[in-house]
Known about the structure:
Helix content: under 10%
Order of helices and strands: EEEEEE
Distance between the termini: 29 Å
Strand order of the largest sheet: 4-3-5-6
Radius of gyration: 15 Å
Largest sheet: 4 strands, antiparallel
Number of helices: 0
Number of strands: 6
Structural class: mainly beta
Amino acid sequence: GATATDDTDGDLTAKIVETIIGPDSSSIQPPVSSFQTPGLYTITYTATDAAGNSASVSRLVTVVASTTTP
């Protein structure tokens, strides 16, 4: 997850938009539990204040195949 604050607007955490790009460059709908396929995922969090200023941060997540038998 992520949090966001602004000097004027205060807490913007509820306004964060999460974008997930999967290993095949396709867009995936949150939540993170939708990571079913092994590979590298990019999660980008973007917050925008009332004045239209925005900031983003991205995180890379590597999903590996399970090595255990269910």
